[in-house]
Design goal:
two-stranded antiparallel ribbon, 222 residues, 9-stranded mixed beta sheet, alpha/beta, Glucose Oxidase, domain 1
Length: 222
């Protein structure tokens, strides 16, 4: 059985605070007498479910479309629960406890409980989101050398109101000057309470040359 962990896009998609909303409008519509339907979309490449590539954090680092195709398929997913409140950062201690029993995952999905908040309070979701602390990221880098991706049920891996830690978290994880050069961040995932640990996972971005990151379709086999 497969489950979709990415959200469909709409004009109501919660967007990172201070970024413009998604705009969709019909260029040609059958209801207006045209022979077919076609639409124009305007949205930032970090709106909705998307993947951050290394170039998001540094101009000299790799863009997402430059990754090998196999980079977007994961055979050893892990799902961990770290409940968080507004603007919290998952601490080193919380990450150590949550990952204590894991063995060599290639992607870790962090479920903070904010999937429900996205549905009920999108303003809070985008303005007071929690994140992962830099110390927790350093621990993951050291503990799991095969780990290629972190997925999160929030608008960003970093808390919006804690900018310095947010910036450091992204640079630490995406830095290619480490044993791995293909790390990525999957943000704004749908990780409901009833989701079991996936057997495998695919996170396929739209491949657009010249940009750092892009929207993604994420599918789990459960």
């Amino acid at each position: 059985m497969r489950r979709l962990l990415s959200y469909p896009f709409s004009q109501n998609t919660p967007t990172y605070r201070f970024s413009p909303p998604i705009v969709m409008y019909g260029v040609r519509l059958i209801e207006r007498g045209d022979l077919f339907n076609s639409y124009r979309l305007e949205m930032w490449n970090h709106h909705g479910t998307h993947i951050d590539g290394p170039n998001h954090a540094d101009d000299s680092w790799k863009k997402l479309h430059e990754f090998p195709l196999d980079s977007f398929f994961f055979e050893r997913p892990a799902l961990i629960d770290i409940p968080m409140g507004d603007s919290d950062l998952a601490s080193l201690e919380a990450m150590q406890v949550a990952t204590a029993d894991l063995v060599d995952p290639d992607v870790i999905l962090v479920r903070s409980g904010w999937t429900e908040i996205r549905r009920t309070d999108p303003e809070r979701y985008t303005s007071s989101n929690p994140g992962i602390s830099p110390d927790a990221i350093r621990y993951l880098l050291e503990r799991f050398p095969s780990l290629r991706a972190i997925g999160f049920d929030n608008v960003s891996l970093g808390a919006m109101k804690r900018y310095d830690e947010n910036h450091e978290t992204h640079r630490l994880w995406l830095n290619p000057n480490q044993p791995r050069t293909d790390r990525m961040i999957i943000e704004d995932l749908n990780l409901p309470a009833d989701l079991p640990t996936p057997k495998s996972l695919s996170a396929i971005p739209l491949f657009i040359e010249g940009i750092d990151s892009c929207w993604a379709t994420v599918i789990a086999e459960v």
